Amino acid sequence: MNFQTLSYDVIGIGFGPSNLAIAIALEEHQQANEAPLNCCFIEKQPAFEWHGGMLLDNTHLQVSFLKDLVTLRNPSSRYSFINYLHQQRRLESFINLGTFFPSRLEYNDYMRWAATAFKDRVHYGEEVIAVEPLEENGKVEWLQVVSRLKEGAIEHRYARNVIIGIGGYPRIPEVFKSQKHPRIIHSSQYKNCHYRFSRVGEKPRLAVIGAGQSAAEIFRDLMGRYPQGRIDLISRSRALQPSDDSPFVNEIFDPDFTDEIYRTPREQRQSFLRAFSHTNYSVVDLPLIEEIYERLYMQRITGDVRHRYFPSCLIQAVSSSEERLQITLFNKNTGVHKEVEYDGIVLATGYQRDGHHKLLEGLEPWMVSRTVERSYQLPMASGCQARVFLQGCCEETHGIADSLLSVLAVRSKEVVDSLYMPNELKAPLENTG
Ligand SMILES: Cc1cc2nc3c(=O)[nH]c(=O)nc-3n(C[C@H](O)[C@H](O)[C@H](O)COP(=O)(O)OP(=O)(O)OC[C@H]3O[C@@H](n4cnc5c(N)ncnc54)[C@H](O)[C@@H]3O)c2cc1C
Ligand SMILES: NC(=O)c1ccc[n+]([C@@H]2O[C@H](COP(=O)([O-])OP(=O)(O)OC[C@H]3O[C@@H](n4cnc5c(N)ncnc54)[C@H](OP(=O)(O)O)[C@@H]3O)[C@@H](O)[C@H]2O)c1
């Protein structure tokens, strides 16, 4: 082990949009004024890809492209979506499209284009498994970042600052946790695994569980893929509900709003997050709801009903054999139980965003609290000079936009400014925990 070559001022864990925005902000900050910080990023995927399992046809960005990796921080950055279009010679054609919402395919390509500029600083194909304190004489100045390579080898790197941007991991409903069947997949794997359904023939019986954007997009995709198949959408909610992206509501996604929500007392903040949860979670773009409704309606005209929506249904039990899956549905409205057989099931049941707790287990004795400061930094005991920043898992304190693209450009500046600021000069905004 060569401590010299593997030590950094900053290590970013994960290289999704959040840490990509940090890489750009660091580069631009250094160009403008400061001495460079020595940094690297560790990403478990083999190459940059933005939710590759959901890169489906006819899906679009859900925020304006003006909320790209840089524009709200530095509109003249070379990493803007507009410059990407210009470099690809598509700017004029994109203008002719007349949209603020590029396809997810194009937006993924934009971010991959930006990520390419940092390929010398990103270690792809390595999963970080722990961040541990290096304690010397009762003090911690360095953190050890432990990662596992694909072949199983373990790598150690050292950093004064660690920025965790690992996104979410699949939320699996309790009744499915013990089921390891290859044709039960989570929405995040959909594009890479749906071929498994076609192995049972041209008319698979499939269920999609959930009522969010992922469930609706997958339901539409499966209906198109298997017009002769029997595809069911099952939700515990009463109806597919539209996301509210009207302009006054949208202000809660403005970067400026972060200060306001952070200052709000805890209970008030929690009730605010509940009240506005339907701007993002368990909601679907209205045109997609209308498209699905019309499709199901058309089948009722012909009487050839192959695709169905079961609202208000709880899944009470699941059993599986190699050939088939069986679920017990309970309809909350009618009180009726029903057994239904499927060949495959897609769990579009969302994500959990607490993966950082496991990574940071070894550091817990040094952590004063699990609640981040306004600067996204975890408060540490006085003997710990090493710093940890969290991104994308601070919804409770920093608002619903925290897991989204909306605040990336501005948040990356806030984190980079803190990296250049000595610990003791910080003046965090008051937060009630
Ligand atoms: C299908 C889908 C579409 C979306 N569309 C939009 C949208 O249009 N607009 C919007 O605002 N938000 C959208 N979101 C929300 C999404 O969270 C953000 O777009 C964005 O991906 C957040 O970036 P991130 O870097 O924080 O997380 P992620 O994009 O999840 O990136 C995290 C990265 O960390 C890596 N990683 C995880 N664990 C480790 C580890 N232990 N070691 C190393 N690497 C690790 C992952 O492989 C991943 O590349 C969407 C989410 C989904 C699921
Ligand atoms: N094109 C795009 O840009 C795009 C595409 C997909 C996703 N996204 C984004 O990705 C994020 C996540 O969206 P998502 O649709 O994956 O997740 P989500 O919005 O969190 O929705 C998850 C769904 O699963 C249901 N669910 C959770 N646990 C369940 C259980 N135990 N039993 C039954 N149902 C359960 C939820 O039901 P309840 O409602 O009852 O809780 C909800 O309907 C959002 O920000 C979304 O906008 C964007």
TrEMBL record:
Broad enzyme group: oxidoreductase
GO molecular function, one term: L-lysine 6-monooxygenase (NADPH) activity
Domain of life the protein comes from: Bacteria
Alphabetized UniProt keyword annotations: FAD, Flavoprotein, NADP, Oxidoreductase
Entry's Gene Ontology BP terms: intracellular iron ion homeostasis
Annotated metabolic or biological route of this protein: Siderophore biosynthesis
Names of the cofactor(s): FAD
Enzyme nomenclature, EC number: 1.14.13.59
Keyword set includes Oxidoreductase: yes
Pfam families, alphabetized: Lys_Orn_oxgnase (PF13434)
PANTHER family, sorted: L-ORNITHINE N(5)-MONOOXYGENASE, MONOOXYGENASE
Record family assignment: Belongs to the lysine N(6)-hydroxylase/L-ornithine N(5)-oxygenase family.
Protein name: L-lysine 6-monooxygenase (NADPH)
Organism taxonomic ancestry: Bacteria, Pseudomonadati, Pseudomonadota, Gammaproteobacteria, Chromatiales
